[in-house]
Amino acid sequence: MKVYFTFDSRPDLQKQLTEQFPEVEFAFRKGIVDGDLETAEVIVTYGEDLTEEHIFKAHNLKWIFVASAGVEKMPKNAIAERNILVSNVRGIHKKPMTESILAHILAIKRVLPTIYTNQRNKVWDKRGGHPTELNGSTALIIGPGAIGGEIGRLLQAFEVYTIGCNRSGNPADYMNETYRIDDLVEHLPKADIVISVLPSTDETEHLIGYEHFQVMRDNALFMNFGRGNLVETNVLIRALVEKQIGHAVLDVFEEEPLPLDSRLWDMDNVTISPHCSSHSSRYLERSLEIFIPSLKKYLGGDMDIENKMDILRGY
Q1: 146 and 64 together in one domain
Q2: Deepest in the core among 25, 163, 220, 236, taking most CB within 10 A?
Q3: Which GO terms describe its molecular function (predicted)?
C-alpha cells in the first residue's frame, strides 16, 4: 500500500513513519506527481493542491488525510462521488491559535504596539496608550469547539466571563453561558471581546452582517481567526470606518493574500495577521499524532478513524 504526502516534511518525521510502518510505501514530494497520484491509496495533503482532475486520476485512492482543519478548497463533489474517506487534524490548532489570540488581546489591552513604537522613536512616555485590563472582561466566542474551548479555558484564568455561541445552544466546555448562533444579535452587546473561530461552510458564509456590528459595543474588540468569508470585507470596513467597534484583529480574509490596495492595511483600528495564527514548529508533530493512530486503524480494516469528515458539509 502506498501513502503519498503532497508536501515535504522533516526527515526525522519521515523516518518515524517508515520505521513504524515498514509494510507501507511512503512517498514524500513537494507538489503533485502524477505517478504517485495514480498509485496512492492514501494521500496526505494540506487541502489546497488537489483538483477534480487529480481525484479522477487517483484510481486507487481510498482515504485523504488533510493536515489542516479547513477543506473549503478541496474538490468536494468529486471526492464524495467516489465515496473517498476524508479526515483532518481538527483540534491540533487549539494550542498555537489560542496563544496567538491571547497574545493579540494582551498586546492591545496593555498597549504593546504603542510601547514598541515609542521604543523605536526613543520616546519615554509613561502615560501613553491608555492601557486597560483583560481581567473582568466578557468574551463571546463564536464556535466554542476544540479551539474555542481552549480559548475559553485560558481566558477564564484571567477571570474573563465567557459566552459561547454554537449551532445547538448546548453547553460547551469552558463557557459560562452557551446560546444558539441564531440568537447571536441578542448576546453580542454583552461582550467586550468577540472571537470567531468558525470554519467555512455554507451556513457560516457572511454570517456576520452590518447589523451585528451595530449591536456590538463601540469599544469592542472583534477577532476573526476562523475563515475570512464570515463577513463581507466591505461590511467590515464600513463598521470600522463608522467606529461601530473599537478594533479588529484579523487573521483571515475573503481574499488572501490581502490585496495591497485594501483599505484595511491603512486603518489604525485594525491589526492584520497573515493567516498564521496556527503556525508552530510542532504543527507536523501534532498532525502525526492524529495520523499515526488513524493509519494503524486503517491498515487493520477499521474505518472509524479520528476526525472523519462529511466532505460536503465541510466538517
Answers
A1: no
A2: 236
A3: NAD binding; oxidoreductase activity, acting on the CH-OH group of donors, NAD or NADP as acceptor
Angstrom distances, CA of residue 169 to CA of 163, 177, 189, 193, 309: 11, 9, 18, 19, 22
Q: Would you say 26 and 41 are in contact if contact means Cβ atoms under 8 Å apart?
A: no
Residue 69's identity, in one-letter code, is A
Helices and strands per DSSP (H, E), number in the chain:
11, 12
- Core vs surface per residue 216-249: b (16+ CB within 10 A) or e: bbeebbbbbbbbbbbbbbebbbebbeeebbbbbb
Range of the structural domain that residue 206 is part of: 94-272
Quote the radius of gyration of the chain (alpha carbons, Å).
22
DSSP notation for 146-162: HHHHHHHHHHHHTT-EE
Cis bond before residue 144 (omega within 30° of 0): no
State pTM to two decimals: 0.86
Report H helices in 110-158. Answer: 112-120, 146-157
